[in-house]
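pinning this so it doesn't scroll away 📌
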Amino acid sequence: FDLAGSNEFENAEIAGIVAFIEDFVKEVIKLHFENDPTRKADLVKNFKESVVPKYLGKLNQLAKDNGGYLWKAKRTWADLYVATVLAMLSGRDKEFSDALEKHFPDLLKLHNTVESLPNFAKWIKERP
Protein backbone atom coordinates (compact mmCIF):
# COMPACT_ATOMS: atom_id res chain seq x y z
CA PHE A 1 0.00 0.00 0.00
CA ASP A 2 3.08 2.22 0.15
CA LEU A 3 2.04 3.79 3.47
CA ALA A 4 5.33 3.32 5.32
CA GLY A 5 8.85 4.63 5.02
CA SER A 6 11.53 3.00 2.91
CA ASN A 7 13.68 1.88 5.85
CA GLU A 8 13.57 1.30 9.61
CA PHE A 9 14.63 4.85 10.43
CA GLU A 10 11.81 6.36 8.34
CA ASN A 11 9.35 3.89 9.86
CA ALA A 12 10.48 4.98 13.32
CA GLU A 13 9.83 8.62 12.41
CA ILE A 14 6.32 7.76 11.25
CA ALA A 15 5.73 5.65 14.37
CA GLY A 16 6.77 8.66 16.46
CA ILE A 17 4.04 10.74 14.84
CA VAL A 18 1.53 7.97 15.51
CA ALA A 19 2.65 7.80 19.16
CA PHE A 20 2.01 11.54 19.41
CA ILE A 21 -1.51 11.01 18.00
CA GLU A 22 -2.04 8.19 20.50
CA ASP A 23 -1.13 10.55 23.35
CA PHE A 24 -3.92 12.82 22.12
CA VAL A 25 -6.33 9.87 21.96
CA LYS A 26 -5.47 9.01 25.57
CA GLU A 27 -6.55 12.50 26.58
CA VAL A 28 -9.84 12.02 24.71
CA ILE A 29 -10.42 8.68 26.44
CA LYS A 30 -9.65 10.16 29.86
CA LEU A 31 -12.25 12.87 29.23
CA HIS A 32 -14.83 10.45 27.85
CA PHE A 33 -14.77 8.08 30.81
CA GLU A 34 -14.67 10.63 33.64
CA ASN A 35 -17.84 10.28 35.74
CA ASP A 36 -17.31 12.95 38.36
CA PRO A 37 -19.05 16.12 37.05
CA THR A 38 -16.62 18.53 38.72
CA ARG A 39 -13.57 16.65 37.52
CA LYS A 40 -15.09 16.30 34.05
CA ALA A 41 -15.67 20.06 33.84
CA ASP A 42 -12.00 20.62 34.69
CA LEU A 43 -10.94 18.07 32.08
CA VAL A 44 -13.14 19.69 29.41
CA LYS A 45 -11.66 23.09 30.18
CA ASN A 46 -8.12 21.72 30.01
CA PHE A 47 -8.92 19.81 26.83
CA LYS A 48 -10.16 22.93 25.05
CA GLU A 49 -7.52 25.30 26.37
CA SER A 50 -4.42 23.10 26.43
CA VAL A 51 -4.78 19.64 24.93
CA VAL A 52 -6.37 20.55 21.59
CA PRO A 53 -4.00 23.46 20.85
CA LYS A 54 -0.93 21.39 21.83
CA TYR A 55 -1.70 18.28 19.82
CA LEU A 56 -3.72 19.59 16.91
CA GLY A 57 -1.47 22.63 16.63
CA LYS A 58 1.58 20.40 16.20
CA LEU A 59 -0.21 18.08 13.75
CA ASN A 60 -1.51 21.08 11.79
CA GLN A 61 2.05 22.43 11.54
CA LEU A 62 3.33 19.05 10.35
CA ALA A 63 0.65 18.97 7.64
CA LYS A 64 1.50 22.53 6.63
CA ASP A 65 5.24 21.84 6.50
CA ASN A 66 4.89 18.53 4.65
CA GLY A 67 2.74 19.39 1.67
CA GLY A 68 -0.54 18.35 3.26
CA TYR A 69 0.69 15.17 4.92
CA LEU A 70 2.25 14.47 8.31
CA TRP A 71 5.59 13.14 7.05
CA LYS A 72 7.81 14.23 4.16
CA ALA A 73 4.99 15.15 1.76
CA LYS A 74 4.06 11.46 1.52
CA ARG A 75 0.85 9.73 2.52
CA THR A 76 1.48 7.29 5.36
CA TRP A 77 -0.51 5.22 7.79
CA ALA A 78 -0.15 8.13 10.25
CA ASP A 79 -2.33 10.24 7.93
CA LEU A 80 -5.00 7.54 7.84
CA TYR A 81 -4.90 7.21 11.61
CA VAL A 82 -5.22 10.92 12.34
CA ALA A 83 -8.02 11.28 9.77
CA THR A 84 -9.93 8.48 11.50
CA VAL A 85 -9.49 10.10 14.92
CA LEU A 86 -10.60 13.49 13.59
CA ALA A 87 -13.63 11.97 11.87
CA MET A 88 -14.68 10.27 15.09
CA LEU A 89 -14.37 13.46 17.14
CA SER A 90 -15.90 15.76 14.52
CA GLY A 91 -18.88 13.44 14.14
CA ARG A 92 -19.58 13.52 17.87
CA ASP A 93 -18.87 17.13 18.72
CA LYS A 94 -19.89 20.12 16.60
CA GLU A 95 -17.72 22.44 18.68
CA PHE A 96 -14.67 20.27 17.94
CA SER A 97 -15.56 20.22 14.24
CA ASP A 98 -15.88 24.01 14.21
CA ALA A 99 -12.54 24.43 16.01
CA LEU A 100 -10.86 22.11 13.54
CA GLU A 101 -12.15 24.18 10.64
CA LYS A 102 -11.32 27.53 12.23
CA HIS A 103 -7.94 26.89 13.86
CA PHE A 104 -6.38 23.90 12.11
CA PRO A 105 -6.98 24.33 8.36
CA ASP A 106 -4.04 22.22 7.20
CA LEU A 107 -5.12 19.33 9.41
CA LEU A 108 -8.67 19.65 8.10
CA LYS A 109 -7.31 19.59 4.55
CA LEU A 110 -5.39 16.40 5.36
CA HIS A 111 -8.56 14.87 6.83
CA ASN A 112 -10.54 15.74 3.70
CA THR A 113 -7.76 14.43 1.43
CA VAL A 114 -7.78 11.07 3.20
CA GLU A 115 -11.56 10.83 3.19
CA SER A 116 -11.61 11.48 -0.55
CA LEU A 117 -9.30 8.57 -1.37
CA PRO A 118 -11.39 6.13 -3.44
CA ASN A 119 -11.06 3.10 -1.17
CA PHE A 120 -11.41 5.17 1.98
CA ALA A 121 -14.48 6.98 0.61
CA LYS A 122 -15.99 3.63 -0.37
CA TRP A 123 -15.39 2.25 3.12
CA ILE A 124 -17.01 5.32 4.71
CA LYS A 125 -20.05 4.97 2.46
CA GLU A 126 -20.49 1.24 3.05
CA ARG A 127 -19.50 0.83 6.69
CA PRO A 128 -22.18 -0.29 9.12
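📌 and the second one:
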Amino acid sequence: ATLKRVWGKQWYQRRVRGDCSNITAAELAGKIPEDEPRYHLFNYNHDFNGEKLWKIVFFYSCPGYNVPVKQRMMYSSTKSTFLTGLEKNGMEIAAKKEISEGADVNEAEIYDMVHPQKHASRAAFVKPKAPSRGGRRLIR
Protein backbone atom coordinates (compact mmCIF):
# COMPACT_ATOMS: atom_id res chain seq x y z
CA ALA A 1 0.00 0.00 0.00
CA THR A 2 1.22 3.50 -0.75
CA LEU A 3 0.38 6.54 1.34
CA LYS A 4 0.17 9.79 -0.63
CA ARG A 5 -0.08 13.17 1.01
CA VAL A 6 -0.08 16.70 -0.27
CA TRP A 7 2.56 18.89 1.31
CA GLY A 8 2.47 22.34 -0.23
CA LYS A 9 2.36 21.75 -3.99
CA GLN A 10 4.49 18.62 -4.09
CA TRP A 11 3.47 14.97 -3.82
CA TYR A 12 5.41 12.66 -1.57
CA GLN A 13 5.00 8.91 -1.45
CA ARG A 14 5.97 6.54 1.28
CA ARG A 15 5.60 2.79 1.54
CA VAL A 16 3.39 1.66 4.41
CA ARG A 17 4.61 -1.38 6.34
CA GLY A 18 2.32 -4.28 5.62
CA ASP A 19 -1.41 -4.11 4.98
CA CYS A 20 -2.92 -1.67 7.47
CA SER A 21 -6.29 -1.16 5.81
CA ASN A 22 -8.64 -2.79 8.35
CA ILE A 23 -7.06 -3.33 11.74
CA THR A 24 -8.34 -3.25 15.29
CA ALA A 25 -6.81 -1.39 18.24
CA ALA A 26 -5.18 -4.63 19.43
CA GLU A 27 -3.60 -5.18 16.00
CA LEU A 28 -2.40 -1.57 15.94
CA ALA A 29 -0.54 -2.17 19.19
CA GLY A 30 1.42 -4.95 17.49
CA LYS A 31 2.37 -2.75 14.52
CA ILE A 32 4.02 0.00 16.58
CA PRO A 33 7.81 -0.28 16.20
CA GLU A 34 9.91 -0.66 19.34
CA ASP A 35 13.13 0.79 17.89
CA GLU A 36 12.13 4.07 16.20
CA PRO A 37 9.63 6.93 16.62
CA ARG A 38 6.63 7.10 14.29
CA TYR A 39 3.35 8.91 13.62
CA HIS A 40 0.28 6.67 13.40
CA LEU A 41 -3.16 7.58 12.05
CA PHE A 42 -5.75 5.08 13.25
CA ASN A 43 -9.20 4.90 11.67
CA TYR A 44 -11.27 3.95 14.71
CA ASN A 45 -14.54 2.23 13.68
CA HIS A 46 -16.98 1.90 16.58
CA ASP A 47 -20.60 2.12 17.72
CA PHE A 48 -21.78 5.15 19.69
CA ASN A 49 -25.41 5.41 20.87
CA GLY A 50 -26.47 2.81 18.31
CA GLU A 51 -24.79 4.66 15.45
CA LYS A 52 -21.82 3.31 13.46
CA LEU A 53 -19.03 5.93 13.48
CA TRP A 54 -15.41 6.23 12.45
CA LYS A 55 -12.95 8.74 13.83
CA ILE A 56 -9.29 9.35 13.07
CA VAL A 57 -6.98 9.11 16.09
CA PHE A 58 -3.37 10.32 15.94
CA PHE A 59 -0.65 8.51 17.90
CA TYR A 60 2.95 9.67 18.22
CA SER A 61 5.09 6.78 19.37
CA CYS A 62 8.59 7.29 20.71
CA PRO A 63 10.03 4.20 22.41
CA GLY A 64 12.16 6.04 24.95
CA TYR A 65 15.89 6.33 25.39
CA ASN A 66 16.92 3.47 23.10
CA VAL A 67 16.30 5.81 20.13
CA PRO A 68 18.99 8.31 19.07
CA VAL A 69 18.41 11.86 20.28
CA LYS A 70 18.41 13.21 16.72
CA GLN A 71 15.42 11.03 15.75
CA ARG A 72 13.50 11.86 18.93
CA MET A 73 14.01 15.59 18.42
CA MET A 74 13.12 15.45 14.71
CA TYR A 75 9.80 13.68 15.30
CA SER A 76 8.82 15.74 18.34
CA SER A 77 9.65 19.06 16.67
CA THR A 78 7.80 18.27 13.41
CA LYS A 79 4.69 16.78 15.03
CA SER A 80 2.70 20.03 15.14
CA THR A 81 3.64 20.90 11.53
CA PHE A 82 2.54 17.43 10.42
CA LEU A 83 -0.81 17.74 12.25
CA THR A 84 -1.39 21.26 10.88
CA GLY A 85 -0.75 20.00 7.35
CA LEU A 86 -3.25 17.18 7.80
CA GLU A 87 -5.92 19.52 9.17
CA LYS A 88 -5.36 22.08 6.36
CA ASN A 89 -5.93 19.29 3.83
CA GLY A 90 -9.31 18.45 5.37
CA MET A 91 -8.47 15.59 7.74
CA GLU A 92 -10.32 15.92 11.04
CA ILE A 93 -8.42 14.34 13.92
CA ALA A 94 -10.68 13.37 16.82
CA ALA A 95 -7.97 12.64 19.42
CA LYS A 96 -4.19 12.82 19.84
CA LYS A 97 -1.94 10.83 22.15
CA GLU A 98 1.77 10.30 22.74
CA ILE A 99 2.79 6.74 23.60
CA SER A 100 6.05 4.98 24.37
CA GLU A 101 5.11 1.41 23.39
CA GLY A 102 2.35 -0.56 21.72
CA ALA A 103 0.98 -1.77 25.05
CA ASP A 104 -0.20 1.81 25.71
CA VAL A 105 -2.89 1.40 23.01
CA ASN A 106 -6.18 -0.21 24.00
CA GLU A 107 -9.70 0.12 22.70
CA ALA A 108 -11.30 1.31 25.95
CA GLU A 109 -8.85 4.21 26.23
CA ILE A 110 -9.35 5.19 22.57
CA TYR A 111 -13.13 5.18 23.11
CA ASP A 112 -12.75 7.47 26.15
CA MET A 113 -10.48 9.83 24.18
CA VAL A 114 -12.96 10.08 21.30
CA HIS A 115 -16.10 10.27 23.48
CA PRO A 116 -15.12 11.70 26.89
CA GLN A 117 -17.63 11.29 29.69
CA LYS A 118 -19.29 14.51 30.75
CA HIS A 119 -19.62 15.02 34.48
CA ALA A 120 -23.05 16.18 35.62
CA SER A 121 -21.85 18.45 38.40
CA ARG A 122 -18.48 20.02 38.61
CA ALA A 123 -17.26 21.22 41.99
CA ALA A 124 -17.21 25.01 42.05
CA PHE A 125 -14.13 26.81 43.25
CA VAL A 126 -14.50 27.91 46.85
CA LYS A 127 -12.47 30.98 47.68
CA PRO A 128 -10.52 30.44 50.90
CA LYS A 129 -10.94 32.84 53.80
CA ALA A 130 -8.41 35.62 54.08
CA PRO A 131 -5.83 35.18 56.82
CA SER A 132 -6.63 37.07 60.00
CA ARG A 133 -4.92 37.89 63.26
CA GLY A 134 -7.65 36.68 65.54
CA GLY A 135 -11.09 38.08 66.35
CA ARG A 136 -12.12 41.67 65.73
CA ARG A 137 -11.12 44.18 68.35
CA LEU A 138 -12.94 47.36 69.19
CA ILE A 139 -10.77 50.32 69.96
CA ARG A 140 -12.23 53.13 72.10
